[in-house]
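Bug #77: duplicate submission created two jobs. Keeping one. Sequence:
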Amino acid sequence: MATGAALYFLAMARNNAWANHRLLKACAALSPAEFVAERTSFFPSIVETYNHILVVDWFYVDALEGGTLGPKAWESEVPFPNFTDFEKAQRAVDQRLIALCDRLDDGGLAKDIRMHRETHVQIDRADRVLLHLFEHQIHHRGQVHAMMAGSAVKPPQLDEFFCAGDSKFRGADFAELGWREEGVWQGLDGR
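Kept job's structure:
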């Protein structure tokens, strides 16, 4: 189980999975046409944006696990144009990230990570790679959220994860994810 500063990275990995869970539930209510519809954003549709999040997750999680996937992560910019297949793949990589962070300790956060790029191997500390990955996910998930505002489906609230007073807003999601409130915060709140 994560210890020390690694507990905060585990909390971020769980936040990532929870935010994806909420947003994926909302995306499931979109029609197939709305999921692929052209919209205004960095990537021109929800399907393209969410698939970008997925392939970047594959790249960094693989590197953090010691793999050499590298640029092969981008062999297809939209590996899952179908929502059902995409959702399954996103949830799987979210679980890999949680498991990875759950195994971390302070020494693991300081470990060098080798990221195989097209022309070189980039080396960065695990904590910096994780911070970059979480920022990337939040950035692009916010774009999906904004694009949903122009659809028939209301985008969900995504900022009710960390504060204890917000637990009433996330209880159903935690149950769907198989989590217990006290288990998610174990170690961080003195338990």
